[in-house]
Amino acid sequence: MLHIAEGTDHLLFLTTLLIVAPSLAVRSRRGFRWTQPIPTKRAVLRATLIITSFTVGHLITLALVSLGVISFPTKPVEILVAVSIVVAAIHAIKPLMPRGELIIAGVFGLVHGTAFATTILDLNLGFAEKLVAILGFNIGVELAQLCAAVLVLPLLIWLSHARAYTPFRNVIAALAIVAASAWIIAISVDGTTVLQPVFDGIARVPVVCYLVLVAVVAVLWYFTRDRVDAASLSGSTVSDAPAMEPEPSIPVVERSAL
Fold it and tell me: For the whole prediction, is pTM greater than 0.85?
């Protein structure tokens, strides 16, 4: 769980996947586009499928790499982890295909599982100990992912009922692309990303950062909420408003030509 909490790249990948859960990709004249809101149960189901797909992907490679069945160079794997964030962010801005987030989660979950395996390999465990470590590590990862989803998904579903959700989703995706690009550059030159101070600052005060996110979502929802949704949340409907009396028509007298 600590590995996920400190792994900004893994959390950012999960965020770019979950941010499309309250939306649905529909076909348009220019390819596909996102539409929202969708029913809450469907959004939760979509989020569950995304997390499950990611889990299956990283479980496979985590086990295979940890047990020594396959191996990959570290640097290409780290670059691919950053690339996975870019692909997920592009999909969040404009859907690549219907349910593309499930494919992205599963395919790139294989890459993230390879990165996870380095933690177990560094312990130099025996075969039996590795099996226990793989099981325990996956349980911890899933618990951390569920905690993140429980904290973030309700905010996303809430904001999806406001007009600000599309620009909010695009801004988050754009920031993810910037962060991932900085990681790719840093990994390529064996350095540290220029955004590391930002990530360290967030890690020092996670509760404050989460409360700021809640406040931002609340403000965006309040000022861009749909009138029908706001009325339904307050227990009234649009028809409850008093009907306005039609203005009396003013007769027009035509001037006849002499």
Answer: no
